[in-house]
Amino acid sequence: MEGLTINEAAETTGWSPRMLRYIESAGLIEPPRTPKGYRIFGPGELQRLRTLRELLARFDCALSDVAFAKRHASDPELRAALDRWFEERPEPPEGVESGDWLSWEQQKHQRLLAMDTPPRLTEPTPA
Amino acid sequence: MEGLTINEAAETTGWSPRMLRYIESAGLIEPPRTPKGYRIFGPGELQRLRTLRELLARFDCALSDVAFAKRHASDPELRAALDRWFEERPEPPEGVESGDWLSWEQQKHQRLLAMDTPPRLTEPTPA
DNA sequence: CCAACCTTGACACGATCGTGTTAAGCTTTG
DNA sequence: CAAAGCTTAACACGATCGTGTCAAGGTTGG
Question: CB of residue B37 closer than 7 A to nucleic acid strand C?
């Protein structure tokens, strides 16, 4: 037998066997199986599982977040759409028809500052 | 008034006013405010909101996913950690017999991570 | 001034996530 | 063979998400 069974893997990784199955169902791991269907966890998988634990704790994020990040990493369309959305910023419309948006400049100013300024509470000094 | 109020924005974007506030609380938009605190939605924000709707529908993902993607996009450490995790290969010990599967090129993988001490390993003492 | 609108806060509620537990049925092994 | 271990499926349950709604109070505008 070349690898750990699910209960052994659980002990060395800190996950419960239930969670190991759950993590697999979430698509985050895919341990190989014996001909009869028993999962076998190699050292690489074990390491990945420990790393995953550290990841979730360090960044305080959820399994579903990592699952989505995986999707994000492997689906170029999804990534492109998201990137586009994040870049999209509230700007004045190219062809402003009627003069409805008179004081837009100020809004834009506020928006841009709010957007990529790290948590700052003081009033920014305009150059 | 140079922009739409929350109810007007709701009508043109398809979101409910409640959801517009929720989306803001999730950090996905940050509409500017009047001096008295009323949100004002410019055309850019409205467009973003419609795009967001399309995004969620097209890729069948959740607001929290997009929120996490934003974090992922703006936190290099998080991105690096996730990228490293996805690159980590499980590589089951294929050619190894029952003897020494514990010793193989694991160290290379371990080097990639800032190490913590994983939960101590104890041999499964049959209780 | 008063109706209409905005704001925050809270309660509610179904859906999903994360997790444990248990059941029924194979498999491995002493 | 029987105990122990694995597998899937299912029930349960608290926590969080997504969403509506309602309340209490400030703002706006005719």
Answer: yes
Query: Is residue B78 helix, strand or coil?
Result: helix
- pLDDT band for A2, please (50, 70, 90 cuts): confident
CB pairs below 8 Å between A and B: how many? 159
Dist. CA B54–CA B61, nearest whole Å: 10
User: What's the CA gap between B90 and A116, in Å, rounded?
Assistant: 37
Lowest mean pLDDT among A48-57, B68-77, B105-114: B105-114
CA distance B18 to A126: 34
- Residue A55 CB lies within 7 Å of the nucleic strand C: no
Distance CA B43, CA B3 (A): 8
What residues have CB less than 8 Å from A85, skipping those under 6 apart? Answer: B48, B51, B52, B55, B66
Tell me the chain A residues in contact with residue B72 when contact means C-beta distances shorter than 8 Å.
69, 72
**CA distances, B102 to each of A11, A44, B34, B94 (Å):** 16, 10, 64, 12
pTM across the whole model: 0.77
